Amino acid sequence: MTDPKNIFSYRKFWAGRFGPAPFLPMSRAEMDELGWDSCDIVLVTGDAYVDHPSFGMAIIGRLLESQGFRVGIIAQPDWNSAELFKALGKPNLFFGVTAGNMDSMVNHYTSDRRLRRDDSYTPDGAGGKRPDRAVIVYSQRCREAYREVPIVIGGIEASLRRIAQFDHWSEKVRRSILVDSKADLLIYGNAERALVEVAHRAAKGQALRGMHDVRGVSYMLDAVPEGWTVLTPDLVDEKAEIEESESEPDEAAVLTAVAERAKAQSGTTVVRLPAYDRVKDDKVLYAHASRILHQESNPGNARPLVQRHGDKQVWLTAPPIPLTTPEMDGVYDLPYARAPHPSYGDAKIPAWDMIRFSVNIMRGCFGGCSFCSITEHEGRIIQSRSEASILREIADIRDKVPGFTGIISDLGGPTANMYRLACKSKEIETVCRRPSCVFPDVCKNLNTDHSSLIGLYRKARAIPGVKKIHIASGLRYDLAVKSPEYVKELVTHHVGGYLKVAPEHTETGPLDKMMKPGMGSYDTFKEMFERYSKEAGKEQYLIPYFIAAHPGTTDEDMMNLALWLKKNKFRADQVQTFLPSPMSPSATMYHTELNPLKPIRRVGGEAVFSAKGIRQRRLHKAFLRYHDPENWPLLRDALKRMGRGDLIGPAKHQLIPLGQPLGTGRTGGEGVRAGRKHGAQSFMTQHTRPARPSSR
To answer: Which residues, listed in sequence order, are joined to residue 45 by a DSSP beta bridge?
Structure first.
C-alpha cells in the first residue's frame, strides 16, 4: 500500500479565484450573487442542505470548493420531473448524486416495512421529501435533464449496494446499484480521496468511465481487460480458512504473508465474485460472495473484485486508503457556515438540532459488528483528527453557533472511544484479515491506550465558555475496561446522568453471530461505572440497549434476555427489531440462513436460524417489552408452547402475570404501558442514531 497523494496538494482549478461561498448555492440567484455563470459540479442529495461537517453533502461540497471548483447543491428536489434538476443549469463536469446521510429505504421504512411518518433530515421533520431508492431515481432525472453530463453516485446507499445485494424491502437480490442507476462511476466508502482525484482528472478532460486506476470506485466494463489474472475462489477457500484461524498474527507470520500478498497487490490480479444471475437464485453462492467481499476489505491487502451482471462486468477497485490526520484536519477545518441554508427560514431540522453542538473527532470502526454498516462504509482503520483541530471546532461552536449554552453534546464519532487506537504494527495491520479487532477477544496487537482521549477531554473542558462536555456516541465498553483511568474520567466528568451502551444481547448464540462480546465485559464495566460514580458522589445509571430477532436468535434466547431484564429491573420504552441492511454479514445470514463469518460449503456449512415471519419477529420484540400488557397474550401462548408455563404468574421470578388488565391485549400492539414494579428503570433502545454518521 503506497502513500497516496495528499488531497490538499492538488493545484487548484481556475475557478478557485472566486473564493469560498457563504453557503454553496441552491439557486440561480445565489450563483449570480457569487458572480458564477455556471457550476462545475452539481450535487444532488436527499437531505436538507445543512452546512455542517456531520452532513455528507456539506463535507463533499466544501472539499470540492477547496479544490477550486464551483459547487452547487440541489437538496430534496421534487423527483416527479426533471425540471428542478435543471435549477442550477448544466454542470461543466458532472452530477454527484447521493440519497443523503441515510439509506432512503431505511429512512422510509421500519424493520417490519411500515412507513415512517417523519424524516430527521428534512425541515420540520416532514416525511416523503425523497423517493424510495433515491440514488436510482435522482440519477434518472439527472440524465433526463442533461443527457450528456456524466453522473457520479456515492453515499451510504450507493456504497452498500455496490455489488448484487439482498434487499429486505422487496425480499429479493437486486443488481448492483451502478447497473440500475446507469451512472458513470460509483464511489464507495468515505469519498474524499477518490472524489478529489476524479474531479481534477475530469477537469482535464478525462472521461469518468475511463478512470480505472482510482481506488474506492466501481464502474462497468464489457470484459476483463487483457493481462489480468482472474481468481475464482472455491466455496471453501482453504488458504483463507487457515489465515483466519490465526486470530492474532505475529511478526514472523507477517513477513511470510507480506511476500505472498505482494504479487496479488501488483495490480494484475482480480477476484471474481459469483455472477448476479447465479447469486440471485443460489443462496449458497450468495453467502460465498458475501464472504469474499468482506475478506477483501483491508486497504493494505485487498484486491479488486469483479462481478458479472448480464453482459456487463461490475468492477470494484481496491478500497480507498484512509485519510491521514492532517487530511482529516483539513476536511473539518473547511469554512462551514455551521447552519442550515437560509432558504429554510425558521424551520426545524431535527438532525441538525441533534448535532449542532457536537464534534466528530474520528471516523471508522474496527468493531466489525455484523449487523452494522459503519465498518463496511467507513472502514476499520481509525482516522483521527488532531487535538488542535478538535479544540478549534469547539471554540467555533462557542463563538458562532446561535443558542450555545456552554454544553457540548458529544465528542465522538461512530464510537466514543476509538480515538487514535490502532494496530501496534503497521506491517501486521497491512496483512491482517480479521473482520474485527475486538472479537472474539480484543486482539493482543491492538493498542488500547486511551491516554490521548483522556488528554483531549481535559483540554476540551478547559476551554473558556465550555461548562460541560457529554459523550453521547456509542461506547465500546470491552475496550474501555482496558483503561480504568478512562472509565474514571468518563464517569466523573462526561456522563449526564445516563450512559447508553450496547450489549445487544445476553446469550452466546446471537452474540457470536453479531460479533459482539459476552456479558462478562459488560459486568466488568458496570462494576467500574458504579464504583467511579459513587467516588464522584454522583447518582448515574448505565442503560443497556438490545436488538430483537437478529439471525442466530431463538425464542429461548429472547426469553432468557427478558428474564435478565426483569432480574436487573430494566424496562424498554422503545425497542429495535433487526433490519437486514444491504451487504452486511447479518443480512446474508438472514437471507441465506448460512454464516458467512465461517467457510461456506455446499453441504455442511454452518446453518443460522433467523426469525422471519411477522409473528415470530413480534414475539422477539415482545420479549424485550415483557412489561407491556399488550404483549402478554402473545407471550403467554409462546411460553406455554415452549414448556415454560412456570414463568407465568405473580412471583418476582416469573416473567408475566396470569391475568390481563381490562382494555389491553392486542397482540404486539403499542397499547397501555404497564406501571413500574420492583423499582424497574425505564430506558430506550435505539439503533438508528440519525445524525451522527457523515455518510458520503
So the answer is: 75
- CB pairs under 8 A, 24+ apart, for 669-673? 669/630, 670/630, 671/628, 671/629, 671/630, 672/628, 672/629, 672/630, 673/573, 673/627, 673/628
Binned at pLDDT 50, 70 and 90, residue 471 comes out as very high
AA identity, residue 510: P
How many angstroms separate the CA atoms of 648 and 152, rounded? Answer: 58
**Rounded distance, CA 310 to CA 402, Å?**
54
Q: Which three-class secondary structure state does DSSP give residue 189? A: coil
Strands 172-174 and 498-504: unpaired
Measured between alpha carbons, how far is 694 from 155 in angstroms, rounded to an integer? 9
Place of cell 422510509: 108
The pTM assigned to this predicted structure is 0.92
170-178 mean pLDDT: 97
Residue 674 has pLDDT above 50, yes or no: no
Grid cell locating 157: 446507499
In 206-250, alpha helices (H): 238-245
Cα-based torsion angle of the residue sequence 578, 580, 581, 586 in order, rounded to the nearest 10 degrees? 90
CA dist., res. 374 & res. 376, Å (int): 5
pLDDT in tens, 588-601: 999 999 999 999 99
Among 3.40.640.10, 3.30.70.20, 3.80.30.20, 3.40.50.1220, name the CATH number for the domain at 357-627+675-684: 3.80.30.20
Q: Are 607 and 509 in contact (CB under 8 A)?
A: no
Quote the CA–CA distance of 331 and 514 in Å, as a whole number.
Answer: 33
Give the dihedral sign, CA 501/502/505/509.
Answer: negative
pLDDT one-digit tens code per residue, 248-258: 555 555 555 55
DSSP one-letter string for 337-378: --EE-GGGTT---HHHHHHTTEEE-EE--S---TT-SHHHHH
Rounded Cα–Cα distance for residues 55 and 275 (Å): 35
